[in-house]
Amino acid sequence: MRRLDIGDRLLAYLVFAAAVVLVTFFAFQHELPREWHLPGSPTLYLFGVAGTLLLCVSVVFVITKRTGAGGSPLGWFSAHVVTATLGGVLVTIHSAGYLRYAPALLLVALLLLVILGVWARVRLSKDMAATFATREESFSPPGPENRERLARLIEEKESLLSRLEPEAEEGTFSPRLKHWLTRPRLTLAYARLISRENRLLGVRSGVSPAQAYWRVVHIVLAFLFILGIVGHVVTVTFFAGYVSGGEEIYWWHLTK
């Protein structure tokens, strides 16, 4: 079976189509009824819910990638790209173009996530592929001093792994979500050993800063975005009076 994948051209078409939809909506927004100008109005509320659900597919992709369950990670990655783009369009429409309040920061974070993701896929992926083939030091044995330090570090990893995942092999093991949930202290200790090993081998120092840190930035932005979404949902649902500032509360809510 052919693997589900999104090529650079299809990704460009997808982002371009999303931009066209948003530009068209805001260009003709003045022709629409009043509720299309109110962020979170009954109509736009549904856009926000649908967009948030689509964005949650990205969380499923992370869980699938970290647990090994749920099928091909590549298929979920493709779903993550498509649903994140569609979800981004819907939540932007949900905002009705209001950029004067705190939720606008969510749109900024979402825009940065899209830009970073597209750039990493289209441009950075080629640099990373070229780097892998030209890093001679990655295939060269370490010096005597580093070799001894690596040997001791691997012994620590093997000892810790015997308690964390007894049947796993140190050379191929990577902590997954289940380890963080069931054995957080051991997993954190093992992750620290991995970090020490990477520094000893110069994993990040041997590549450009963009290659070394783009994924960290992407994860941090995504985490902040998720926290912002949760905070937004909680405030508009349970603290509607505070959000409205004493004005009309026209969106669905539970308490003021």
Tell me the count of domains.
2
Helix content: 55-70%
Estimate the mean pLDDT confidence.
84
List the helices and strands in order.
HHHHHHHHH
Radius of gyration: 23 Å
Structural class: mainly alpha
Low-confidence segments, given as residue ranges, are none
Tell me, briefly, the overall form. Answer: elongated
| Distance, first to last CA | 53 Å
How would you characterize this protein structure?
Helix 1 packs parallel to helix 3, helix 2 packs antiparallel against helix 3 and helix 4 (104-134) runs antiparallel to helix 8. This protein folds into 2 domains: 8-133 and 208-244, no CATH class; 145-201, no CATH class. It is built from 9 helices and no strands. With 256 residues, the chain is an all-alpha fold.
Task: Summarize, please.
The chain has helices spanning 8-27, 42-67, 73-94, 104-134, 144-164, 177-182, 184-201, 209-238, 240-244. Helices cover 70% and strands 0% of the residues.
